[in-house]
From TrEMBL:
Keywords annotated in UniProt: Membrane, Transmembrane, Transmembrane helix
UniProt organism field: Metarhizobium album
Protein name: Branched-chain amino acid transport
TM ranges: 6-28, 40-64, 70-86, 91-110
Pfam family, one: AzlD
Length: 111
């Protein structure tokens, strides 16, 4: 039991550090109008963060995806984004097309 205390401390400290900001975001978010500049800014920052993580995963992957060529990852992401736009901005279509293209490319090159 003595060996578990550092992990308990990390879990509790992590929960306290993030939960406070989540509740603050909920409280502040309820007071924002959807057409306000603050809401547009928050949505823009959130979108930018998601895209930054996505770009990092495509350009600098880890694990099994690291063995795939960069051109294949970029092509699958680009064509998936095109499918997303053509389908009326359906996320499932964009993700699905990207996954199928990447899987087919990996199969074709023998990975």
């Amino acid at each position: 039991m003595q060996d578990l205390w550092p992990y308990v401390f990390i879990a509790v400290a992590g929960w306290l550090a993030t939960d406070f900001w989540r509740w603050l975001g909920v409280l502040a978010g309820n007071r924002l109008r959807e057409d306000s500049e603050a809401f547009y800014w928050v949505r823009s920052v959130a979108t930018a963060l998601v895209m930054a993580v996505t770009a990092k995963l495509v350009v600098f992957p880890t694990g099994a995806l690291e063995a795939s060529p960069l051109w294949m990852r970029l092509g699958a992401a680009g064509l998936g984004f095109a499918a997303f736009l053509v389908s009326g901005q359906r996320v499932a279509v964009g993700v699905g097309v990207s996954l199928v293209l990447l899987a087919a490319g990996l199969y074709a090159i023998g990975l």
